[in-house]
Amino acid sequence: MPFYDAGLQFSCTRCSSCCRKESGFVYLSENDLSRLANEFQMSYTDFIKAWCRWVPFNLDRERLSLREKTNFDCIFWNEGCKVYQARPLQCRAFPFWDFVLDSVKAWEPAGKDCPGINSGKLHSKEEITGFLRLLEEEIIIERDMLQIGGR
Ligand code: SF4
Predict the structure, then answer these.
(1) Looking at ligand 1, which residue's alpha carbon is closest to its atom 1?
(2) What is the pLDDT of residues 22-71, one digit of tens each?
(3) What φ, ψ does residue 112 adopt, rounded to 5°?
């Protein structure tokens, strides 16, 4: 039985601490790219050139990630998330990521960096496993996959 069988509390306070000041990868799936490119009315190719970078994955592969600023803020952070409605699944699903949900030992420390964890809305086990399923199903774009939707 997972430790979150009775659900977990989380409500994002939009404090932005997970979007700023620390380097990290924000991977994009095809759905993410479609939503974001649509938000900017750009082709996939132009959106990737303007806002993305290729980052190493598993030694010999590269995944598509959002860029970050020189101070490590997310490229779309500017007094808050500028693409909140179209933000990537990775951001939508936080903190219900597999390694954070691995055990209470992983979940509790995450709460030290995120004031939304263990407060606010109670998410049922079904909601949580729904996020896990989506994260597993959405395929992150890798460099050799770029025949996406013919755009
Ligand atoms: S650290 Fe937590 S509360 Fe703050 S923006 Fe990120 S998810 Fe929201």
Answers:
(1) 114
(2) 999 999 999 999 999 999 999 999 999 999 999 999 989 999 999 999 99
(3) -70, -30
Instruction: Write down the pTM of the prediction.
Output: 0.90
Who contacts 84 (Cβ-Cβ below 8 Å, separation ≥6)? none
77-100 core/surface letters (b: 16 or more CB in 10 A; e: else): beeebebeebbbbbbebbbbeeeb
User: For residue range 113-127, what is the model confidence (pLDDT) as tens digits?
Assistant: 999 999 999 999 999
Strand partners, 108: none
d(CA 150, CA 133): 27
Q: Measuring from atom 2 of ligand 1, which residue has the nearest CA?
A: 114
Most ligand 1 atoms within 8 A of CB, residue of 87, 114, 123, 131 to mutate: 114
